[in-house]
């Protein structure tokens, strides 16, 4: 079993403890190299990880090499695991724990990945009535440089808005649409079955975190328009908010290391992959699993 704290360096200070997670440089996130997730965790450690997730919203656990079963079991500590709608090139759907890659069907790296929407700012599954709570990635294969993932803090972005803008947008709802996203990102259009399973839905433009009570912007590539607002005016507002919220001062760039396990809170962060490496030359393989969330309020 993995203990919550490491021993203090001095025997005279044996009661002292070392925090399990250390904040990352920048606005969000924390990391640790003191966990072995290949084994079950004790209750105190599970509580500490959940508390760190609540407080930091983005966690990095170094030096992991989990199989699908162990990754599933760890993610399950945060809630029920989410199924997936996305279909692969052969028409099959993703497994609950699956890989996202820049590889073709023969396993060769390609310059244009099958799923291009990953490179646009988004929060996972916001087009569902109960969007994703948590997304988890584990580095399996990495390019020698680049292939970073970026995260934007929507709570800090909301707090930094002028008071008049906050008053204007509080109470508004944005329509989240899978069909819109596919057009917006230049991806393949959804099937009729996809649209029937996930029709457009309105969620609060400003979302309240159920654990912290703090407000954050709830926007991204699925945000089609503002309910009750002329379409052009709503699109302009959404694009202005996205430009504001993804300024460098709100963004953390995760530069992957082998063995990184990274997971984040979709309720208050946006994320995107970056194509800052030779995609047609180097392999990038990440294992992924998603935890189902609740109706945004």
Task: List the keywords.
single chain, 297 residues, alpha+beta, 7-stranded mixed beta sheet, globular
Secondary structure class reads: alpha+beta
State Rg: 20 Å
Instruction: Give the terminus-to-terminus CA distance.
Output: 37 Å
Number of domains: 1
- Major sheet details: 7 strands, mixed
SS summary, helix count: 7
Order of helices and strands: EEHEHEEEHHEHHEEEEHEEEE
Question: Kindly state the mean pLDDT as a whole number?
Answer: 91
Would you kindly provide a written description of the structure presented here, covering whatever features stand out?
There is one protein chain. This protein is α+β, with helices and mostly antiparallel strands and 297 residues long. The protein has a single domain, classed as Clavaminate synthase-like (Double-stranded beta-helix, 4-Layer Sandwich). It has seven helices and 15 strands. A seven-stranded mixed β-sheet has the order 1-2-3-13-5-15-4, with helices on one face. Mean pLDDT is 91; it is low at 1-16.
